[in-house]
């Protein structure tokens, strides 16, 4: 059989998916409302088109070849994406699904408490939040739109910065009462967010605090949401984005002992691939999110 690189007809692929999943041509025919002979014929046409056998046929039993085993998840993913995107584009907005890939801290500290307002505007729209923390954890699963944290150096992505890129110290009122000068921080436990490009050393330089001979106690965590919880509990002082903590400051769960801000390379970004139009649900989420943040 001569190998072909152009795409085979969709109905052949749907028939292959059913037959490969069920490992039974008759059962595949019943699922697709085809006769067993029609299923067999479409499988042979697909194999001829691809130039390679996909099934091993033994009496009344069929097995997938190595090529068939490798091809099945590819076909299933393609069909699933086609079904989902067809529904997303052509179905009424209220019956769609929105998959948001979002940084853990942003989800817990900002997005999740506000999502009820979004859902009130778009009742019936199904939400799915997929959480990630590090840059390399994003884009592992299909998502309509992403909210990422980092320096924004992600090729091929359309980006909109969401926060003012600066950090300042926060802590529980009990610890804030012990602070009158930035140098006093050296005697308290400090919470460090692993992965941030700027942190306490840069903040101390900004505040003109000498740290060379200081014996500083650091507690470390890999996300700001955990750092905030630790800070509220009085475990230490942490650096955070002011845009996150309006509610905590108003309720006095947290205080900012010093109004000294450190400009940071990192920020939170609304992100999606360049050149790919947003789905209906992603477009309205994009507009809602920027409106909530005061950009529109």
UniProtKB/TrEMBL annotation:
Q: Which UniProt keywords apply?
A: DNA-binding, Transcription, Transcription regulation
Q: Which InterPro entries match?
A: LysR-type_TF_proteobact-type, LysR_HTH_N, LysR_subst-bd, WH-like_DNA-bd_sf, WH_DNA-bd_sf
- Cite a single GO MF annotation: DNA-binding transcription factor activity
Tell me if DNA-binding is a UniProt keyword of this record.
yes
Matching Gene3D superfamilies, A to Z? Answer: Periplasmic binding protein-like II, Winged helix-like DNA-binding domain superfamily/Winged helix DNA-binding domain
The alphabetized list of GO BP terms reads:
DNA-templated transcription
Please list the residue ranges annotated as the HTH lysR-type domain.
8-65
What is stated as this protein's family in its record? Belongs to the LysR transcriptional regulatory family.
Protein name (Swiss-Prot/TrEMBL): LysR family transcriptional regulator, glycine cleavage system transcriptional activator
Per the UniProt entry, what species is this protein from, by scientific name?
Neptunomonas antarctica
């Amino acid at each position: 059989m001569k190998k072909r690189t152009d795409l085979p007809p969709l109905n052949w692929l749907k028939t292959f998916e059913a037959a490969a999943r069920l490992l039974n041509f008759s059962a595949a025919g019943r699922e697709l409302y085809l006769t067993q002979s029609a299923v067999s014929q479409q499988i042979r046409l697909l194999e001829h088109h691809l130039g390679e056998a996909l099934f091993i046929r033994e009496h009344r039993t069929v097995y997938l070849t190595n090529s068939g085993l490798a091809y099945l998840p590819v076909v299933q993913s393609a069909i699933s994406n086609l079904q989902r995107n067809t529904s997303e584009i052509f179905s009424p907005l209220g019956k769609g699904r929105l998959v948001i890939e979002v940084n853990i801290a942003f989800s817990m500290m900002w997005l999740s408490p506000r999502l009820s307002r979004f859902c009130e505007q778009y009742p019936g729209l199904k939400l799915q939040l997929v959480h990630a923390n590090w840059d390399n954890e994003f884009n592992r699963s299909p998502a309509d739109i992403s909210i990422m944290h980092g320096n924004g150096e992600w090729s091929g992505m359309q980006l909109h910065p969401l926060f003012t890129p600066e950090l300042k110290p926060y802590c529980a009122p009990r610890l804030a009462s012990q602070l009158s000068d930035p140098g006093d921080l050296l005697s308290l436990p400090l919470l460090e967010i692993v992965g941030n490009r700027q942190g306490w050393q840069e903040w101390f330089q900004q505040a003109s605090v000498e740290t060379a001979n200081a014996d500083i106690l650091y507690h470390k965590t890999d996300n700001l949401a955990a750092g905030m919880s630790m800070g509220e509990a009085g475990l230490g002082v942490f650096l955070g984005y002011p845009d996150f903590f309006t509610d905590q400051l108003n309720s006095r769960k947290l205080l900012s002992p010093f109004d000294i801000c450190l400009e940071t390379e990192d920020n939170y970004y609304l992100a999606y691939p360049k050149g790919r139009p947003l789905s209906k649900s992603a477009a309205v989420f994009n507009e809602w999110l920027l409106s909530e943040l005061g950009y529109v």
